[in-house]
Amino acid sequence: MLPLRILVLHGGTGWKEIKERAVFEIERCAEEGFGFDSALDAVVEAVRCMEDSGAFNAGKGAVYDLLGNRSLDAGVSFKGKIGAVANVSATRNAILLARYVMDLPPHMISGPQADEIARLLGLPPLPPLDEEKRKKYEEDIRKVLGYIPKELSLDLLSFFKGKEEGSGTVGAVALIDGELAAATSTGGIRLKMPGRVGDSPIYGAGFYSDEVIACSATGIGAKIVKFMPCLKLAEAVRKGRGLKEAGREIVKASKDMLGPSMGLIAVSSKGEVFWGTNYRKMLVSMKVE
Asked: 242 and 199 in contact (C-beta within 8 Å)?
């Protein structure tokens, strides 16, 4: 007999060492998300919980960009509908905003307009960087540039040598009573270019669900968008491949093509579950009933 309820969470890949607090929070958020009766509510609430925990690179815990600010990306999908937001900088929970956007005519929005919708909806604001993170930003940017920039300039861009790497993106996939849903949220890459958009709000790359699978990816955004792992996985399963076999092959193919780059979690309509990574360590939690 197939399980009726499955919820799988990830706390990102690319971790050099997984922090004990992150393990505690992902387990707590898995319990919280599993208390909901629909796949959509389960993934949204699990991701919102991780955003609010401050233990991951999402929501309150998001990393800072080149100018010491934060911008958030998120995507959610359920029963043929998608909602996605990018470059959200004044909203605490990008995933809640993406969930609301799912029901609006434009289902992908970005920047100040996205934040304005969040304000109209009464969603809580993103708090300012705490003192510890502000000091860490100043240390990091001085190592790269030798000074703290106040605004973007061509000279600044020519000196910027940041690498696209990081960890702590969050995501969730669920199968509940035969329905599949997926959600992903991130703060992007530490010291990223302001305005950068990664894979998390891109359907088929950072998040995906249909009648066959639900998938959430994490890793180096530009490489994930180039590879579109969730879309590839859905196509393979639709052709009759097993989720685990297809998942392993896609994770390997991504590494062969692009180098260490990504991890993903997925669940199929048959109740199969897969997670795997080719990029350092990945944090995963699962609940089944």
From this structure: no
Binding-site annotation: residue ranges: 196-199, 218-221
- Measured distance CA(170)–CA(66) in Å, rounded: 22
9 has pLDDT over 80: yes
Q: How far is CA 65 from the centre of its chain?
A: 17
Domain that holds residue 234: 5-288
pLDDT attached to residue 163? 59
Does 159 score more than 80 pLDDT?
A: no
Residue type, 37: D
Q: Across the chain, which distance is largest between two alpha carbons, in Å?
A: 62
Q: Which residues pair with 273 in a beta bridge?
A: 267
Are 188 and 63 within 8 A, CB to CB?
Answer: yes
Quick one: 226 exposed, middle or buried, by C-beta within 10 A (0-12, 13-18, 19+)?
Answer: middle
Annotated catalytic residue, options 13, 91, 169, 184 = 169
CATH of the domain at 94: 3.60.20.30
Please state the separation of Cα 246 from the chain's center in Å.
Answer: 21
> How far apart, in whole angstroms, are the C-alpha atoms of residue 89 and residue 285?
28
Please give the annotated binding residues for substrate, written as ranges.
196-199, 218-221
Domain count within the chain: 1
pLDDT in tens, 161-179: 555 666 789 999 999 999 9
User: Does residue 169 carry a catalytic annotation?
Assistant: yes
Could you read off the pLDDT of 226-241 as tens digits, one per residue?
999 999 999 999 999 9
